Amino acid sequence: PxxxxxxxxxxALDLRPRARMAAAKRVLVTGAAGQIGYALLPQICRxxxxxxxxxxxIHMLDIxxxxxxxxxxxxxLVDSAFPLLQGTLATTDAAAACAGVDVAILVGGFPRxxxxxxxxxxxxxxxxxxxxxxxxxAHAAKDCKVVVVANPANTNAWVLSKYAPSIPRENITCLTRxxxxxxxxxxxxxxxxxxxxxxxxxxxxxxxxxxxxxVNHGTVDGTPIREAVGDxxxxxxxxxxxxQQRGAAIIKARKLSSALSAASSVCDHVRNxxxxxxxxxxxxxxxxxxxxSYGVPADLVYSFPVTCKDGAWTIxxxxxxxxxxxxxxxxTAKELVEEKAMALECLQ
Length: 348
Description:
Blueprint: E1 25-30, H1 35-45, E2 56-61, H2 67-80, E3 85-91, H3 94-98, E4 103-106, H4 118-139, E5 145-148, H5 153-163, E6 172-174, H6 177-191, E7 198-199, E8 202-204, E9 212-214, E10 219-220, E11 223-224, H7 225-229, H8 232-236, H9 238-244, H10 246-254, H11 259-275, E12 283-288, E13 301-309, E14 312-315, H12 323-347
């Protein structure tokens, strides 16, 4: 019978089977009260990191002077009522922050300040990442996936791999997807094409100004990039330096670092790693070198082109490397060898 005036009708229960949500994943963000953390956390909670059907429990770690700010970030996450967010932990205790985490995004580090020598900065970051490694080793899930964002990202990741031996070395990576995405964006702007049509650029080596952004194997809308751009002088000159120095250019313009694009790139890096790369497409990731790929010395964290499937990355081998590319790839490898030697000095 119809409902009485002033009373709502009863709603029939929908008993049809629904797709079951995945189990919640614990995601650690260090340096969570900082700029990148503030840009990154909402993207994670919206599914950009692990997919729209994977709930998350967010672990946030920062240093004691940032504790109040960290509490404020946690309040905002709660206030945003993200459907995928199943819990938060905000702490200055590394052991608590690392407990049971499935993904660790390591943004926290010691930035270089005016007048500081490179070795001094390296020493401070080696100390931070040795301690972080110990906490992850003792408390994280044993199949935890790690992405290091803080600079020097490649060498910080190498230190982490040395002091967290029970975490598989292939599970410790560093972020060069930001550089990869910058390269995609530059090619898209130059050709007037949508960035989604630009494929298979490569970032080789270190996340530093020696990195080599390589377009020789890439395409725009199915056309080789060199053919689509039609300007080798640009691609071998201004394009390379623009990608290498983009971070500094953004700091000069904003008076702040590139937090938004870094956060977006972290999500791209992890999402492709976990959910896979599209068929025929590769991405750039800083991964541990086995000594058998492109002449890169073993035991460096070096950016390669990789494909991802079933939660694992594989280096794309067999690409033809010309002499000019070889020289640039060797230069950035040499810098990483020097950084590793400096890190070892700091560890003694």
